[in-house]
Amino acid sequence: MTGMANGLGLILALPPVAAALLAVLPGYRLSASVNVLASLLSFLAAISLFFWHPPTSSYFAIDDLNIVFIVLNTLVGFTTSVFSASYIGHELESGKLNVANLRFYHAMFQIMMFGMNLALVANNIGLMWVAIELATLATVVMVGLYRTHEALEAAWKYFILASVGIAFALFGTILVYMAAQPVLGEGLQGMTWTVLETRASAFDPGLLNVAFIFLFLGYGTKVGLAPLHAWLPDAHAEGPTPISAVLSGLLLNVALYAILRFKMLMAANAEAINPGPLMVTVGLVSLLFAAFMLYRRRDIKRLFAYSSIEHMGIIVFAFGMGGPLANFAGLLQMTMHSLTKSAIFFTVGQITQVKGTQKIAQIRGLTVSNPVLGWSLVVGVIAIAGMPPLGIFMSEFLIVSSTFARAPLLALALVLGLLVAFGALVWRMQCMAFGAPSGRMAPARGSYIPIFLHLACVVIAGIFLPPAIVAWFQHVARMLG
Amino acid sequence: MHGFAFDVAHLLAGSLVLVSFMLLYQDRLYALLNVFALHAVVLSLSVAWQAHIQDAPHLYITAVIAIGFKAIIIPVALHRMIVLLGIHREVETTASIGLTMLIGLGLVGLSMAVMLRITPHADLVAREDLAFALSVLLLGLLIMVTRRNAVSQIIGFMSLENGLVLAATGARGMPLVVEISVAFSVLIAFIVIGVFLFRIRERFDTVDIAAMDQFRGDRQ
Amino acid sequence: MMRDFTLQTIAMLAVLLLAPLLTGVVRKAKARLLRRIGPPLIQPYRDLWRLLQKEVVLADNASWLFRATPYLVFATTWLAATLVPTFATGLPFNWAADLIGIVALLALGRFFLALAGMDVGTSFGGIGSSREMMIASLAEPAMMMIIFSLALLAGSTQLSVMAQYLLSPNVGLRVTLGLSLIALMVVGIAENARIPVDNPATHLELTMVHEAMLLEYSGRHLALLELASFIKLLLYLSLIACLFVPWGLVPANGSWPAFGLGLLLYAAKMIVGVCILAGFETAIAKMRVFRVPTFVGAALMLGLLGALLLFVSRGL
Amino acid sequence: MPLAFLLWCVLAFLVTAVAAIVTGQRWNATTPVYCITALISLLGCAGAVTALLTHQSAALQLPLGLPGIGANFRMDVLSALFLAIVNLGGAGASIFGLGYGRHEAFPGRILPFFCVFLAAMNLVVLSDDAFTFLLSWELMSLASWALVLAHHGEPENVHAGFVYILMASFGTFALLLAFGLLAGPGGQYSFEAIRLHQPMGMVAGLVFLLALVGAGSKAGLVPLHVWLPLAHPAAPSHVSALMSGIMTKVAIYAFIRIVLDLLGPPVWWWGMVLLAAGGASALMGVLYGLFQTDIKRVLAYSTIENIGIIFIGLGLALSFRADHFEEAAILALTAALFHVINHSLFKSLLFFCSGAVLGATHERNLERLGGLIHRMPVTALACLAGCLAISGLPPFNGFVSEWLTFQAILLSPELPQWGLKLGVPAVGALLALSVALAGACFVRLFGIAFLGRARAPVAANALETDKISLSVLLVFAGFCLVIGVVPGFVIDALGPVSQSLFHGQMPIQSAQPWLSLVPISAARSSYNGLTLLLMIAVALGLAFVAIRIAASRSTRRAPAWDCGFPNAGTLTQYTAGSFSQPIRRVFGTVLFRARESIEVPPPGDSRPARMTVRLQDVVWDVCYAPLSGAVTYLADRLNVLQFLTIRRYLSLVFATLVVLLLVVATWQ
Fold first, then answer.
1. Which residues of chain A lie closer than 8 angstroms to D138, CB-CB?
2. Range of the domain at A463
3. Is residue A136 part of a domain?
4. D177 to A415: CB separation less than 8 angstroms, yes or no
């Protein structure tokens, strides 16, 4: 029993402790390694959850759905901390940051991780809301870390839009409670997932519909769905690169997780509107919009931020289509996207440090000047563009082919978006990776390990998915209905 | 008794919407702050009344938080901030007042339609409260959309939060966790906004967001 | 068996020996039509013999291809000619290739001739080759179309079988046959570099097509090429004869006297053919090179029209 | 067990690729890598040929790929045939690369992808479920894309790579949709399951069209060909040979596999579509080729022409099959497959030759070549053989397949549909026209590049290439000749393929007297390459002997006569441009809006007069320019959304909320 509780307890306890420690620790090398250590431990704790399921309390619960997210979350958190350990020192030397900033940065990093983990394990919609807001506010200050005009403006934009999202989400939460309260009576019952999901069929469908709209908009703002996406590109572009990686790789997923939970709630109620069409529409809009936006990007990080919007669109589309095949594909796509996109941001971070610019126009011939970085970028973009033998190809294969058999026109729109995005990404990638090299030729000093780790995972997953993971995903897909 | 309770709740919630309209109408910063204080007062009254009729004592805390926090501290702070920043007094609105009022009316109608039509089974007080809360929320958003000045946008956001509180208190027996989180988030929101205004003061001559927009990225 | 091969040999030799005579007849007839005496009929033989005796003057940078081409052109043309039934059908070699094969053999010869024209690297050779290929690129498809229509009628691309079929009473007069005949004549004129497409007797460089490719040749090489062109003329005439006036063709199992008769009839056909040709050539003038495509293209269109008519009539 | 053997070969390729990457950093691994790939390809070719001759078919499933379906591989006679083609070409390219690859600046950018490319092509042919198929297919595109970018210094290569990869993924999406329809909502992705429930009616037609677009875009079917003349020349020559000679055949395989094997019985209009596309490709391809001055580009366009010829054959096969003329269908199919083999041979040969020329002169522009027959005699000989073969001249192999196609066309008046009645002869005319034009095209290529006098010093002092490359050239030329002389054996080898697809095969040819080729009956048509060759030889011999006896043997070398005005300037020769001018006058003005503008300087002005020719690619103007324009327009319009103020973004959110609320309010 105690052993069982430990995994969960660790995940929740480690980050705040580490944050408190990091807030006081002097010297960035030490704190960086502490940061890495804490992330590693919480990752191990998350792994342990596979083996000991902690009991479901009215505040925390671990089920098959959120354990996928937790493991992914802590894994990417860990690799990101490794990357940031090798990345952030350079920022110090280049004078972009000072030691105080770094202390703040590391503490905030752990708080952010804490918020996301808490949101994932929460069994209470109110608690989940609090946790996601915590994570958001932490990222807001991280985005503003550089204090440049652009950074502040990005953070301000992020903050305003995010807090409106917060408000919507809260209102939706209240509405859900209102819908539950006549059935479950007053009190904590009305906000507990495990209870809500079992009794959802009796709730008032009208309230649920309105609630879902607010929750979808509220958390959708975090997911970065068009037209709620406005904060995402700038936040990615102006914040420190590790934060961009975390934003794309994790925060979007956490918000997506919330939406999925409420979708299950809606699905459990017969009279409520089926959220599928809404999600499909918004997903397609995001995909097409982002695909066209990719063409005019001049900033490398903003480019990949838009590709995150595009992929979130695809994923939401897949979950909106529903059915075991599409849900499976959606989960796969989400996992692969976090791994690939964070790998890309690791690469991009080093590239920007080497070349000293984020302007695509000033980055040329990377495969000549920095072969490892250049080819990692090539592989990453090929992966994100959905080419084999990498993981996203498999998920997109499933999504497109299964959709075409069910709704041909939707599939055509999907393919159109994918093609347009593909063109933009590959063209930019060719410009940066090939041709005569330009700019500074300094060798990269960051560590390649996180990049290689992620890309290796993606390649392997593209060719061979371990049966255990497959079974797990299929089960979750069935849960999602 | 129930009828009376319902009427008072109705009255208070409705007057909150009214005050939101006043907010929408204001075009001077100081006046805006004062009206916002009034907004908070009305909110706290309605919360208190809810506490009374639901005999849920913990709601009184919320009422106190509302009156203390939103009616006194924040307006004062913002007042000082305005002085500190020395921003000019005018609140330049984008759309004309009349138009915004019309839109506001439309929004209230919408929220009524949404809430009252589709929730026939829910408790009547709750429905009324929700309807008004939704309209307050939408009006707050409308303020944020129609105002250029950062301070007035913050106020719009606050009034939006007020709507949330109204809804939360309308929900019978909703656990305390929510109020705390609301207060919590308002607090954080205020602090962070303050921090931002401060930083922005450091770097820009005005908090006018339009001035910040020229630093938007990707415009090489 | 033995007998077939003797016949085949006779046919091959006949082709070889008659070809210059035929050209001689053409020249003579044209001269007579122009009220000139004209060269004796055996003049072509004399020309060939004289050329054979002359020494070969090779351009400095002529390659082995230049020297090999005359032999190849001669061989392919001769071979093609022997594949066409002259006075007897069903000879052993006739099965080696059908009409398409014959066209391809001629194309092979042309390919090498055009290359030879470009080998020395003079401007005239280039003119000749490029114009030759331009004309061929229209004449060959026209020929294929003719083959289509005839093959559809006869249900075969084997010349002997075609001839047999056309001999048979169930043919009757068909529009397609007429179209094909005209088209085949045009193609023949174009392929043999006769007026109005080209003028075999010209030495005004800019109007030359076939002659321009031979410009650098001399001596025995030139003799071979001349002989080849004689044979080509004979080939086309006997093609027309065997397809459109097949009377008198003797099947391979015929009797010796029959063969003799067939040979005579064949000679008669040839004479008539060249007289018609001479008349035609004297009647009209050479046309500009860039009007040739329309001329040959017309043949292509006629052939296609004929084929279409057949395809459609099959459905009725 | 050839299947397992070939899978091992694939694995070996991949391992070699990894090894090449690892070692590539330290030393130049060119020679060992090409030796290994050549060895593997030869082994694979042997395995495939044995499988083809013993008609054995085997299936195998590996626990990889799509969960639940796994990675299925299967080897039947069809895949065996194409495996033989792929690996033969691979072997040729590898051995040629041994010599050619030496003067390669960055072997590290070629070797790994070369191995992956070979592996992927093998995998495509072996794979037996939709996922594995598409994965290998995309891997093939990806590897060749990397090879196109091998010389990424030139901007046009980068552009070529971009167009190529974009078109490739377009084609992949088309195939993906086709498989989506075939597999159905249940996700039955394995070919076995697809064969069990074949779609009917509209769905089948849709699948057919998607497959045509998907495979056609890879094979270079007009109007999906735009990438091909850009990408194929950009790659190193032995890779161009693989892309042009082999990869396009893999695309043909994909089409045959989907349409003739997985899809149900064909409908007559399918054949109509194929015939139209094939005819257009054949004519457009060769005409484009006639007007190019870059050797490799000429070859790339002629690939489009030959693909067109193959598709004409397939179209005939489909139409005959739809109307149940089994014999004719088999003949047409055999013709198409035969041309597949032939083209893979002579196109590889010609690209090798262009590689040899490129290696010797570093020049791809015909206008700067000339007289190479003196400098590189063996290459010239091989190239001549290739040109004869590709122009469809006897006794080479190209003639046989085209002859068979004509024979198939001659059977078509039996078809009942009027569309086909009118279409087929027109296509026949197109085919004849393009064959004739191909002759002109290759006279031009060989004549300008190898004959005449050198137009530039690079050509004047070129050196013959190394022995290894020459041996490859000669071997491939030999293949072209032998297959042309005794085609019967090849047709017999193709028998089982048509047997497996159409349940019947052509009469056994090797049993015919004199090894002559008799598709239907001797009375109908026959061709005997052997006798023809012998007779040509005999005639040559006779002529030669006669000349020896009768004529004077004296020969004198002298300056060219040239009508008495010999000109020393090599620029007075006919150029590639001037050679194709008459044909351009005839066809170009209509098809390519060819415009000639001549500017003559006024008297006394010493500037040379100039003639410039502008050719417009109609297909690009009609199909592609509008698309790219639309994308640019939308991108520009939408890009405004990046620069809004926060307040406007908020109003977007606000509007969304209001709209959704309205939806809910009006929901019933």
1. 387-388, 393
2. 275-481
3. no
4. yes
